[in-house]
Amino acid sequence: MPSGKHQPGQAAIRVENVRKVFRMGEVEVPVLHGIDLEIPEGEVSVILGASGSGKSTLLNLIGGIDRPSSGNIFFRGENIVNFSDPELTAYRRKNIGFVFQFYNLVATLNARENVQVATEVAEDPLPPEKALELVGLSDWREHFPAQLSGGQQQRVAIARALAKNPALLLCDEPTGALDAETGQLVLQTLIDLNERLGATILIITHAMLISQLAHRVFYLHRGRIERAERNKKRQQVREIKW
Question: Does domain 11-229 have CATH number 3.40.630.30?
Answer without folding.
Answer: no
